[in-house]
Amino acid sequence: MKINVATTDITAVATPALVVNLFSGVKAPGGATGAVDAALDGAISRLIEDGEIKGKQGELTLLHTMGKIGPARVVVAGLGKQDDFDADVARRVSSEALRYLRQRGVCQAVTIAHGAGVGGLSPEAAGRAVAEGSLLGLYRFDRYHSKNNGASGDSEEGDGEFAELTIAERDAARAQAIRDGAAQGRIVAEATLIARNMVNEPANVMNPTAMAETARWVAQEYGLGFETLDNAQMKEMGMGAFIGVAQGSDEPAKLIILTYEGDPDNPGNNLGLIGKGITFDTGGISLKPAGGMESMKGDMAGGASVIAAMQIIAQLRPRINVTGMVAATENMPGGSAQRPGDVVRAMNGKTIEVINTDAEGRLVLADALCLARQRGLTRLVDIATLTGAMVTTLGKACTGVMGNDAALIDGVIQAGHQTGEKFWELPMFDEYKELIRSDVADMKNSGGRQAGSISAAFLLKEFVEGAAWAHLDIAGTSTSEKASGYLVKGATGAPARTLAQLAVNLANGS
Ligand code: BES
Ligand code: MN
Ligand code: ZN
């Protein structure tokens, strides 16, 4: 989709649709919406008076202008209460308005920059929010629908692709700020969509080799260091925990490493992003039940978010060194698969009793975290669809965050406030550590039914060896069950935007 910023008169511009907005409780709209209302002889204020337009968030009202003004249609998008307004509301409203138009076959529109007026956003922030929300919300994963065969999946959707969005702003100086913001929004959204694609792709396509090739493309396109380790190299390096998982699959495993040098003179100024990249999780010998197993193609969402975050970071260029790692393998029950009861030794020498081969994410991450420490990274964030217990605990509204460093955990949460991705901290009380005590090894990989997300985090903690560390369990937030705001059904791309924002904030010392 093309996104332009233009200094046009919105009442005169010839366009199939114009999107304006309204806060709830406003009786006489001002600003851009007021100008359109006046040009339509009070049609909007009349609908407000009648109670048909309330300005509630998510409310969309379509007016046909019948040649009275330039735009053929006007969509009035409710922004909700002015006190609750922020950039995330602007992202959601932009997205929903454009999806609404696309459903009606309208694939070109002019919009005002939601929030740049009384909403209190800077023109740049508003431009970014509109572009980011629009691109994220219009995303569809439809590459496996053969065209024109009548099997177009979602029947409520128009088939057209949204072609062009113009953000209108009267003041030329503000228009330039909106343009800068929109460019940033595009950088962030396009990378997030690459993460969504990786997660939505079936596992026969998005295998570890394909993930590595995607990362290689990102590295070449945006100028990042790129490297992979194969099974033999990982074995040689003593990554027994990772290899234990990988050995059940015929697909070659990959440990993917992307590097960004934003502060080469200060190696201590670093951030490591470590993603779980299980491209399909059958459970291994501890086989999962058949119902819903297809969703385990998305068990590499943490890794996908790391690759996407690196793509954003490469373009925003914060002053910090960032390394992204993805521990990519399938978890299959092949003839060489590991067995329950096996004991594996990770790269740092610690041993793990494999009680349940379905608790594989923590095993591959254990060795990736060791490698991150060996490479001198002192600030680590791992991202993983780690536990079903996370979905039980927090559902799909927010990501669970655990760790050993209050400042880093808080940094993630605060970055999430900026991106609209929600995080909630779970406790790491010493009492929980007992859950993974093993009779035969240093620890066991399953803590049983109690506090499953926390006991998983305690295993990871054994491999961060003195680094500041935060663990993000995205089992619930990596996919959405329905279209809502700028999310669509399927992969969300979370938390790529927050990881990039964290890097930017750390670089700025905030
Ligand atoms: N990939 C799963 C966790 C998961 C479940 C993610 C549902 C998204 C949705 C993980 O590898 C797993 O199987 N975890 C087990 C751990 C248990 C065996 C200790 C689980 O949560 O049941
Ligand atoms: Mn599993
Ligand atoms: Zn898994």
Walkthrough of the structure:
With 510 residues, this protein is α/β, with parallel strands linked by helices. It has two domains: 2-191, Leucine Aminopeptidase, subunit E, domain 1 (3-Layer(aba) Sandwich), CATH 3.40.220.10; 201-507, Aminopeptidase (3-Layer(aba) Sandwich), CATH 3.40.630. The protein contains 14 helices and 19 strands. Strands 7-8-10-9-13-17-14-15 form an eight-stranded mixed sheet, sandwiched between helices. The chain has a six-stranded mixed sheet with strand order 1-6-5-2-4-3, sandwiched between helices. It has a three-stranded mixed sheet with strand order 11-12-16. Strand 3 (60-64) and strand 4 (73-80) form a beta hairpin. Helix 5 (172-200) packs antiparallel against helix 9 and helix 8 (240-246) packs antiparallel against helix 10 (361-374). It is elongated and about 80 Å long. The two termini are 34 Å apart. The mean pLDDT is 97. Manganese (II) ion binds next to loops.
